[in-house]
Amino acid sequence: MFPGVDGFHWTAGHVVFLCLFFAAVLTSAMTVISALRRTMRDFRDHRAIDFCWHADFADLPLADRRCRHELAGRVISRTCPNAFDCRNCDKYSELAVLPAKGVTHDLGLNYPNDRFYHRGHTWVKLEEDGTVTIGIDQFADHLVGSPDSVKLPGIGSQIDLNQIAWRLKKNGQEIPIRAPIEGTVIAVGNPKEGWYLKLRPRLDVRDPKTLRHLLRGPEVYGWLSHELERLQLQLHTPDAAPTLADGGVLMPNLMDTVPRADWNTVLADTFLEV
Question: Cα separations (Å) of 156 from 57, 160, 185?
Fold first, then answer.
């Protein structure tokens, strides 16, 4: 049916076929090119990662999508409708002024008040020069202990909120750590230094709204209380020693201490994997 092929003749039927065939090819090519251009634009505008995170968020268990105001005891029950990005919540100002009635007692872990906390168990500390330092919180540190290896982004890398910022490896398990804030990597650390990344934030951290999506105060205690309850249930196996108890504290190096636990599930729930 194509010129040069035995049996082809320049008849009206063959001409019509060629026109339709090349029109279909051209349409398909233009569709692919347009899709590629949109994809490149979305990556350039940081929208692709946001879209992926919203899809991942929708797949999280309902218990993991509690609103920060429920965690603080300001409301009885509320599921976050904004993928943990309180900067885009039209109810934030209304709910944030309500009195907190959540958990405030010591949970046996150190969560300094000079830091902000992300649901993926990272913390953000503001520095005097407007940059931020990022590390993993003590809950995550007690789970992982000393990682076998760390894969960090390069200096100058652009990091988007909720994307995988770096990866840890422990006992054959790869642990992706989500970024708690967007910005440019200006320095990298390691577990011994107690931090992993320093960023120059993309947004002005002097604006209170920039860090509104991160937890502080009673929200941290409410969230951490739920996390400890979840972990205790997940690690409760007939042949494992208790890791938590009423009035107890979280044991360190749990991945080494309780090697037979279902670490795929524990790590996925802890670090917001789906």
Answer: 28, 13, 5
